[in-house]
Design brief:
alpha/beta, Quinone Oxidoreductase, Chain A, domain 1, Rossmann fold, seven-stranded mixed β-sheet, 15 strands, globular, NAD(P)-bd_dom_sf, Zinc-type alcohol dehydrogenase-like protein, oxidoreductase
């Protein structure tokens, strides 16, 4: 199968205020691989990874590159070895970092990293959720090794979430709270603070002031878990001081420096990186866990236990609206998520 479709992409890095930073073009939908679904895209969201990817483009590409790592759409066709979905199913997913993204009319995506979209949400609400939910879930329940089902045992445990109001933090605060943990989240202003308290945080601390002092004043000498969702280098010294003996730390942000792990040795602390794309990038045998996680997230949303995190949306899907959405994420103070839908 090979068909023409519209897509939005770039050939070189340009500031998002430039009309050519993201532009529409016609391209060809490739032939699906055996595990692929052909999805008609109805809504997409913008994440910091879109910005990072555009900024990393140092040369001019011969063909436009399509980014976009969150979508909700309908299955139009299925590959020869698929078994989880059928034509007509409404799905949501983040996709793979090494394949064309979701900013296109149709997308090919491996069914092992796709979930059934929540029945109670609109496409634009659903598209706000996959990348951040996968990241938050993998951080908490895989990398930090918290047991989602041990609500009673978890109640004595505390977690500090650095950046509780961004895309990932807005899901992580909710999931940690659902698992029974005492959630302390950072915020930089009253709006973020209010959002975090409405999304599972028990306490909110202001990152413009001394975090250690504020957390001690709340009655926590140390915390059992720390999740860095903003800037590991900037927060490393605070993290190493606040983490409890035998505590767990996970980070989703990169580090430009050599990390000093020495302060963690005496406390026997475990440190883990999370990269949401790792499973699909390396096609690991546990890749299908992303299908399972997204289906759990879908159920939690439909049961009303998890709130969708959409705060801003643009319509229709075109280059101009994607540039507007990207500019909001680039600003670095976005609460929740922004989507662009049909
Ligand atoms: N490894 C992975 O798999 C993975 C997955 C997703 C994202 N990421 C990375 O994780 C980071 C967060 O992404 P995101 O989409 O969740 O967030 P985001 O939406 O970009 O975060 C925006 C939030 O950051 C907060 N913030 C701004 N400056 C801060 C500071 N100095 N300290 C603490 N919080 C601050 C803002 O709160 P205020 O308005 O209150 O300042 C705002 O609500 C990005 O670097 C992204 O690339 C990695």
């Amino acid at each position: 199968m090979s068909q023409k479709m519209n897509a939005i992409g770039y050939t070189k890095y340009l500031p998002i205020s430039d009309a050519k930073s993201l532009f529409s073009f016609e391209t060809e939908l490739k032939t699906p691989q055996p595990h692929d679904l052909v999805v008609k895209v109805e809504a997409v969201s913008v994440n910091p990874v879109d910005i990072f990817t555009r900024r990393s483009q140092k040369t001019t590409l011969p063909e436009p590159k399509v980014i976009g790592y969150d979508a909700c759409g309908t299955v139009e066709a299925v590959g020869t070895e698929t078994s989880l979905f059928q034509k007509g199913d409404r799905v949501f997913y983040a996709g793979s970092y090494i394949r064309p993204g979701s900013d296109s009319e149709y997308q090919l995506v491996d069914e092992r990293i796709v979930g059934h979209a929540p029945k109670s949400l609109t496409p634009k609400e659903s598209a706000a959720m996959p990348l951040t939910s996968l990241t938050a879930w993998e951080c908490l329940f895989e990398q930090l090794e918290i047991d989602f089902n041990a609500y009673q045992n978890n109640q004595s445990k505390s977690i500090l979430i650095i950046n509780g109001s961004g895309g990932v933090g807005s899901v992580a605060t909710q999931l940690a709270n659902l698992a029974g943990l005492q959630v302390i989240a950072t915020a930089g202003n009253e709006k973020s603070k209010k959002w975090e308290l409405e999304h599972g945080a028990k306490h909110v601390v202001d990152y413009h002031h001394d975090l250690i002092k504020q957390i001690h004043q709340l009655g926590f000498e140390t915390v059992d878990y720390i999740l860095d969702l903003k800037n590991l280098d900037a927060y490393w010294s605070i993290i190493t001081k606040l983490i409890a003996p035998f505590g767990h730390i996970a980070s989703i942000t990169g580090s430009g420096k050599d990390m000093n792990f020495a302060p963690l040795k005496q406390k026997a602390v475990i440190f883990a990186w999370e990269w949401m794309f790792a499973k699909s990038y390396f096609e690991t045998p546990n890749m299908i866990t992303q299908h399972e996680i997204l289906d759990k997230i879908s159920n939690l949303l439909d049961e009303g236990k998890l709130k969708n995190t959409l705060t801003k949306s643009f319509t229709p899907i075109n280059a101009e609206n994607l540039r507007k959405a990207t500019a909001l994420v680039e600003d670095g103070h976005m609460i929740g998520k922004v989507t662009v839908s049909k």
